Amino acid sequence: MIFLERKSVRSSNIKSIGYDEDACILEVEFNKSSIYHYHGVPLKLYNRLMNASSKGRFLKNKIYKYKHSCIKK
Predict the structure, then answer these.
(1) pLDDT tens, the chain, 73 aa long
(2) Which of 4, 7, 53, 60 has the most C-beta neighbours closer than 10 Å?
(3) Is-above-0.85 flag for pTM?
(4) Which residues are CB-contacts of 50 (< 8 A; sequence separation ≥ 6)?
(5) CB 19, CB 4: distance < 8 Å
């Protein structure tokens, strides 16, 4: 299991977000402590997520469609 370095974010649902540019993996730690990997997410989309005023809404509308896996419940 790989955990990425994450940055804390201001969000009602998301605690922190990390990104592996080489593997195109987005890692999201939710406030309820679960951590998900979203596979194949381009760097441009990660940057848009980090700049979004509502990270939870952006994740739901733009990222959920990517293959994902729960790496910690």
Answers:
(1) 678 899 999 999 999 999 999 999 999 999 988 999 999 999 999 999 999 999 999 999 999 999 999 999 8
(2) 4
(3) yes
(4) 7, 9, 17
(5) yes
